[in-house]
């Protein structure tokens, strides 16, 4: 994977600054939209660890995203009152990461086509758990109470008017943290080994790499990060429903990754913003959003196999 | 001349075909043992059994006296078995140095240090440079592997096998597709590698085999037909009938 | 539990399993021969059901609708293969996933535009609209029995084509090794077109056959797609026999669990898949 140069990272830092300052010049509606895009970016970025990092195409990824989201109402019910956001965030990461570890341990016994199919089936299993059981409000979903912004006695009371700005800052901060973390991870021996597996899994095994353990670690970590993204989706929207776990959402995230370009770590962020903007634009012109999305996906796979990031490097 | 690898009565079938049947073999440090035979004799299958790419149906494999039968390829690599592939099998999009560094990484760096930055872990880098120097690729270390010439890619195959710090080197037709001059240099490299490894060489070029091998096994139809010193094999009537006659 | 009730459930399970086989055989063939993952395969099933509904609504009989589904499916398959899938044979899995994801969205839109977004039911043809008595006073729908027989005949025809014809031999060879096709002296592109057309026709036939049994609704293809994937995982890749027995196994287990252990109904198929992945990750019927 091509990691961004110092200059490009400075450019992203500038964009982030512009986004962070958005409450000074933008309507609350657009702040919320930006939060949606940031959450999508976190989700796509977590998937990139699998796709661009280890060459694994998973259709179960939304299940971990959705588990992270459902962790918020589940923790609230378990503890009786809305807990600290640090508690729900940790729970979301653990729940999603743990589930990913279990699914990965089984699905990674297979490769390629079989891996894809078993991730799809496992993902739908989680979808049906929340769709068919009263655990999280069934198929209609659930309006939830947001967790408390603070720890112990140090609690920030966020007014309704301030909320979009606070959420935007929080999502931006988490995305930046995730990006920096993955940027560093891809430079470690572990990250290099993942890239080696993507390039030639067989040769990596023949030179002594425990390929399955490495892939499982990546799968679990990506699931954990997807859980963090899902958690932020729930906190941002104050609503969860089973569609968060459905494989269509996994496919959308794959689209964001491909749209941005699979060769880079910043591609998925570009892809998520482009995807969110596209959905927003299509919503304002037509009711047939499926048509717009379908045509765009088709156009991207036919015409832009290297994604938006590939445009600049031609 | 310490015994490093011992294979006892290995067999492997594919469907109804006995690809390898009852083959025993001993590899000693400091010697080069060549396996020759017509196409389809089971030579590559033998290498795949010894390197853990395939599991044998019967028989056992011992490394330093430890039974490693049925171990997966990555465990055998860590146990000291390095191999090259008949068809070049590298991380094509990466640089030559990164290819070899990755090959050295698994054996040289314990799992708990995997989260350290690759640039700060000196051992695999050092091992990679040493392997490249030994096969003579140090000048192209920074090129992307896919851009190398065929001969250089064959050398990279050997460097990858060397990087895992093996005691046994299994080389599956390393000379395939090489020119005369390149072959000569590679033959010298093979002799050099045999000084501090137990080398198993599969090769079709008989001139090279008889000039570098300390001993030779002839396989036909998955079985061992003859085994002995190169001169003796060259003069063997049975071998000549079964195999060499076709080529000479 | 009464024995006759069990018999009815077993018949239901077999009939569901055979429908699953029509879908998963196409899925496994298209992957085995062309190396393509077709997530839109379930949507083809949905299109077949809606096509059947539209043809019957227009006044034709169900038999005409079935023929339209098969012939229309084959033609549609040829077009799809030529325009899109042929180019994606050598592309990465990610590209194939997204291509077929786009097709799912577009097929749903096409259905909405050409037919509608409503739930529908299709009447069982009069000829078969009677109960067949089975043991102990229980009766079984003649149409369901007919579906069972039709599916079995189709399966039989598939095995005959694969085992006894030149194109069938080419398909089997291609499923094992893509380079083999050229050796047989058959134009590889014809084999791909044939396989894709057959897969599409089978999925649409399954949809049309299912229309009088279950209701016809927009998302009906998704559930079948997922379960067909489970069938292929269980049966083993590229194996027609695996798809057949895997589909019957899944159909029976799902139906019997729904009838007798409803708490497990949703999960039973997945539990089966997990068990197979643990025990034989290459599938129950994988070669070698």
Basic shape of chain C = globular
From N to C, what is the helix and strand string of chain B?
A: EEEHEEHEHHHEHEHEEHH
Strand content of chain B: 25-35%
CATH architectural category of one domain in chain B: 3-Layer(aba) Sandwich
Name the structural class of chain C. Answer: mainly alpha
Task: From the alpha carbons, calculate the radius of gyration of chain B and give it in angstroms.
Answer: 18 Å
Q: State the CATH topology of one domain in chain B.
A: Rossmann fold
Shape of chain B: globular
Let me know the number of strands of chain B: 10
The protein's oligomeric status is: heterotrimer
Class from helix and strand fractions of chain B: alpha/beta
CATH class of one domain in chain B: Alpha Beta
Q: Count the helices of chain C. How many? A: 11
Written description of the protein model:
- The complex is a heterotrimer of chains A (314), B (248) and C (288).
- Chain A has 314 residues and is an all-alpha fold.
- Chain A has one domain.
- Chain A has helices at 6-20, 28-54, 61-79, 85-107, 112-132, 163-185, 189-206, 211-237, 247-260, 267-285, 289-303, 307-312, and strands at 142-143, 150-151, 154-155, 239-240.
- Chain A has a two-stranded antiparallel sheet with strand order 1-4. A two-stranded antiparallel ribbon of chain A has the order 2-3.
- In chain A, a hairpin with a 2-residue loop joins strand 2 and strand 3.
- In chain A, helix 3 (61-79) crosses helix 4 and helix 7 (189-206) packs across helix 8 (211-237).
- Chain B is globular and about 55 Å long.
- The relative contact order of chain B is 0.18.
- Chain C is mostly helical and 288 residues long.
- Chain C has a domain at 26-220.
- Helices cover 72% and strands 2% of the residues of chain C.
- Chain C has a two-stranded antiparallel ribbon with strand order 1-2.
- Chains A and B meet through helix 7 of A and helix 2 and helix 3 of B.
Note the topology.
The complex is a heterotrimer of chains A (about 325), B (about 250) and C (about 290).
Chain A: H1 6-20, H2 28-54, H3 61-79, H4 85-107, H5 112-132, E1 142-143, E2 150-151, E3 154-155, H6 163-185, H7 189-206, H8 211-237, E4 239-240, H9 247-260, H10 267-285, H11 289-303, H12 307-312
Antiparallel strand pairs in A: 1-4, 2-3
Chain B: E1 3-14, E2 17-28, E3 32-36, H1 43-50, E4 58-63, E5 66-67, H2 73-78, E6 81-84, H3 96-108, H4 122-135, H5 150-163, E7 168-172, H6 180-196, E8 198-202, H7 206-212, E9 215-220, E10 223-228, H8 230-235, H9 237-247
Parallel strand pairs in B: 3-8, 3-9, 6-7, 7-8
Antiparallel strand pairs in B: 1-2, 1-4, 4-5, 9-10
Helix pairs in contact in B: 3-4, 3-5, 4-5
Chain C: H1 3-34, H2 41-57, H3 62-83, H4 93-114, E1 131-133, E2 139-141, H5 142-164, H6 166-176, H7 180-183, H8 188-210, H9 220-235, H10 240-260, H11 265-279
Antiparallel strand pairs in C: 1-2
Helix pairs in contact in C: 1-5, 1-6, 1-8, 1-9, 1-10, 2-3, 2-4, 2-8, 2-9, 3-8, 5-6, 6-8, 9-10, 9-11, 10-11
């Amino acid at each position: 994977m091509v990691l961004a140069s110092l200059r490009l990272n400075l450019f992203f830092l500038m964009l982030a600054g512009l986004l962070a300052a958005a409450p000074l010049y933008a309507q609350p509606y657009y702040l919320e939209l930006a939060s949606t895009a940031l959450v999508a970016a976190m989700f796509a970025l977590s998937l990139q660890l699998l796709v661009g990092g280890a060459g694994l195409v998973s259709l179960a990824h939304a299940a971990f995203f959705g588990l992270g989201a459902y962790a918020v109402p589940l923790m609230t019910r378990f503890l009786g009152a809305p807990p600290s956001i640090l508690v729900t965030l940790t729970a979301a990461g653990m729940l999603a990461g743990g589930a990913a570890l279990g699914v990965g341990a089984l699905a990674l016994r297979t490769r390629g086509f079989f891996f894809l199919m078993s991730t799809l089936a496992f993902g739908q299993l989680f979808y049906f758990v929340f769709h068919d059981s009263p655990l999280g409000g069934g198929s209609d979903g659930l309006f939830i109470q947001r967790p408390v912004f603070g720890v112990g006695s140090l609690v920030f009371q966020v007014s309704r008017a301030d909320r979009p700005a606070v959420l935007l800052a929080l999502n931006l901060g988490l995305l930046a943290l995730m990006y920096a973390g993955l940027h560093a991870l891809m430079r470690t021996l572990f990250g290099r080994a993942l890239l080696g597996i993507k390039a030639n899994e067989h040769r990596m095994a023949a030179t002594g790499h425990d390929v399955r353990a490495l892939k499982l670690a990546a799968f679990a970590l990506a699931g954990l990060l997807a859980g963090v993204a899902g958690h932020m989706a729930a906190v941002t929207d104050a609503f969860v429903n089973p569609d968060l776990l459905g494989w269509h959402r996994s496919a959308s995230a794959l689209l964001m990754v491909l749209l941005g370009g699979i060769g880079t770590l910043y591609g998925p962020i570009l892809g998520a913003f482009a995807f969110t903007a596209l959905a927003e634009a299509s919503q304002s012109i037509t009711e047939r959003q499926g048509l717009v999305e379908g045509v765009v996906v088709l156009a991207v796979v036919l015409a832009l196999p290297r994604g938006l990031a590939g445009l600049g490097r031609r | 001349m310490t015994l490093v690898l011992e294979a006892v009565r290995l067999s492997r079938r594919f469907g109804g075909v006995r690809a390898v049947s009852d083959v025993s073999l001993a590899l000693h440090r400091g010697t080069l043992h060549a396996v020759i035979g017509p196409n389809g004799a089971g030579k590559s299958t033998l290498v795949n059994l010894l390197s853990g790419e395939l599991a044998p149906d019967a028989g056992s494999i011992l490394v330093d006296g430890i039974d490693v039968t049925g171990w997966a390829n990555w465990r055998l690599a860590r146990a000291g078995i390095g191999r090259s592939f008949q068809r070049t099998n590298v991380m094509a999009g990466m640089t030559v140095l990164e290819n070899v560094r990755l090959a050295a990484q698994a054996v040289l760096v314990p799992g708990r240090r995997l989260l350290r930055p690759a640039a700060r872990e000196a051992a695999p880098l050092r091992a990679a440079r040493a392997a490249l120097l030994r096969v003579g690729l140090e000048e192209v270390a920074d090129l992307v592997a896919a851009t190398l010439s065929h001969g250089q890619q064959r050398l990279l195959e050997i460097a990858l096998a060397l990087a895992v710090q093996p005691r046994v080197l299994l080389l599956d037709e390393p000379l395939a597709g090489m020119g005369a001059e390149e072959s000569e240099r590679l033959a010298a490299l093979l002799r050099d590698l045999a000084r501090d490894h137990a080398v198993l060489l599969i090769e079709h070029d008989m001139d090279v085999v008889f000039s570098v091998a300390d001993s030779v096994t002839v396989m036909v139809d998955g079985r061992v037909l003859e085994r002995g010193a190169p001169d003796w094999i060259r003069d063997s009537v049975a071998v000549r009938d079964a195999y060499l006659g076709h080529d000479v | 539990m009464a024995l006759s009730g069990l018999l009815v459930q077993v018949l239901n399970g077999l009939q569901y399993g055979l429908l699953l086989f029509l879908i998963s055989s196409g899925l496994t063939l298209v992957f085995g021969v062309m190396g393509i993952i077709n997530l839109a395969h379930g949507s083809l099933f949905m299109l077949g059901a809606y096509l059947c509904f539209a043809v019957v609504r227009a006044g034709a009989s169900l038999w005409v609708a079935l023929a339209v589904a098969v012939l229309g499916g084959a033609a549609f398959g040829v077009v799809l293969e030529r325009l899109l899938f042929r180019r994606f044979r050598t592309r990465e899995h990610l590209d194939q996933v997204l291509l077929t994801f786009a097709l799912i969205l577009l097929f749903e839109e096409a259905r909405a535009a050409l037919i509608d977004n409503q739930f529908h039911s299709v009447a069982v043809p009069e000829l078969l609209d009677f109960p067949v008595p089975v043991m102990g006073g229980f009766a079984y729908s003649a149409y369901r029995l007919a579906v069972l027989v039709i599916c079995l005949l189709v399966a039989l025809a598939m095995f005959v084509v694969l085992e006894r014809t030149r194109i069938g031999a080419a398909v089997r060879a291609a499923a094992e090794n893509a380079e083999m096709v050229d050796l047989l002296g058959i134009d590889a592109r014809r084999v791909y077109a044939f396989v894709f057309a057959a897969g599409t026709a089978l999925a649409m036939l399954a949809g049309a056959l299912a229309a009088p049994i279950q209701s016809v609704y927009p998302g009906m293809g998704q559930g079948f797609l997922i379960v067909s994937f489970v069938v292929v995982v269980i049966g083993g890749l590229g194996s027609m026999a695996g798809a057949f027995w895997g589909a019957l196994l899944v159909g029976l287990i799902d139906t019997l669990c729904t009838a007798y252990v409803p708490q497990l109904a949703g999960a039973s198929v997945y539990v089966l898949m997990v068990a197979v992945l643990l025990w034989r990750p290459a599938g129950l019927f994988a070669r070698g």
